[in-house]
Amino acid sequence: MGETAEELRHDIEDTRVSMSGTLEAIGDRVSPGRVLERRRNRMIVWVGNARASLMGTADDLTSRVNDTAHHLAEAPSTTMQGVRSNTKGAPLVAGGIAFGIGVLIGSLVPASRTERRLGEQVAGAAEPLKNQLQEAGREVAEHLREPVQEAVEDVKQSAQDSAQQLRESASDGAEQVRQAPRS
Domain residue spans in the chain? Predict the structure, then answer.
């Protein structure tokens, strides 16, 4: 028991600071803006990972280009002659091989103005999808507003109850200190 009034005040202040930090963290966690920001960040990471797995990274591309160039430089003419002789009478196989070579060469050549323009057109066409995603985000925020407000009210009420209990405990402790025999 032997706590002085000053120690009790210090303990109360420490508890108050701790509760304040906890309430701020809870408020940040349930804030609709922060919820949407976390979801947006998860979506960006997911899209980046999907793009990297589909298209590869710059290091993957450099490695593939180097490997392909090395293999093409070493490919003996007999192999090319073998491909020609094996694809005679099989136009689909020849077309597939030609397509593969075209894709390979296309991946080595930088994008042209036309390709960039087409990319911009695709981005423009994706604009409605962006708007739909934004609207969906607004709807999510609207649907979360009431439960979040209820949670905040619950936290606020809990904090008020805890503060009241702390005040009562502190006043009881202060009363005990006053009544304790002084030595």
Answer: 1-56+111-183
